[in-house]
Amino acid sequence: MTDIIIRPSLETDIEAIYDIYEYEVLHGTATFDETPPSKLELLAKRESIIKLGFPHMVAEVEDEVVAYSYVSPYRERSAYSKTVENAIYVNPNKRLSGVGFKLMEANLVECEKLGLKNIIAVIGDSENMGSIKLHKKLGFRKIGTMRDVGFKFGRWLDVVLMQKVIG
Q1: Which structural domain range is residue 45 located in?
Q2: What is the pTM of this model?
Q3: How many CB atoms lie within 10 A of CB 78?
Q4: pLDDT tens track of the chain, all 167 residues?
Q5: Domain count of the chain?
Q6: Whole-number Å distance between alpha carbons of 120 and 97
Q7: Which residue from 121, 133, 119 is spatially nearest to 160, judged by alpha carbons?
Q8: Does residue 97 sit in helix, strand or coil?
Q9: Is the N end or the C end of the chain the one with fewer CB atoms within 10 Å?
Q10: Are 61 and 2 in contact (CB under 8 A)?
Q11: How far is 48 from 15, CA to CA, in rounded Å?
Q12: Residue 116 sits in a domain of what CATH number?
């Protein structure tokens, strides 16, 4: 198998990050965005996550960024300061290759170093078995399903909530 390099994202990765996210917006249900954000918006989001001290990481295979992952505040109130929400997006041609697992595993290590307590996965679409299985394999447990809370591609979508206690 080709080596997978996991590293912090760089500004120069934004083109690949945009392509990965744009595909999911236009073709997938992992995000409920219906219009892709601009590259400038993705750069600003990356910057704000890094400014908060949270990881924003990429997986690289053969010098190509094929996945990215980050955590962000779960809620704004100070009582939630040790709880974050994670996000991961993988190039559709690299799913089931181990890239997502390795990237998320590294992200979890960074979260432990930060002294965080909980990571919440807010998974778009209860049929998104790839993401649900990935999170389960990493020790997340399902804590609930919100039924029919998003409408995309002409159908109602659920949100699956999963939680991992760390630290």
Answers
A1: 4-165
A2: 0.95
A3: 6
A4: 579 999 999 999 999 999 999 999 999 999 999 999 999 999 999 999 999 999 999 999 999 999 999 999 999 999 999 999 999 999 998 887 889 999 999 999 999 999 999 999 999 999 999 999 999 999 999 999 999 999 999 999 999 999 999 97
A5: 1
A6: 24
A7: 121
A8: coil
A9: N
A10: yes
A11: 18
A12: 3.40.630.30
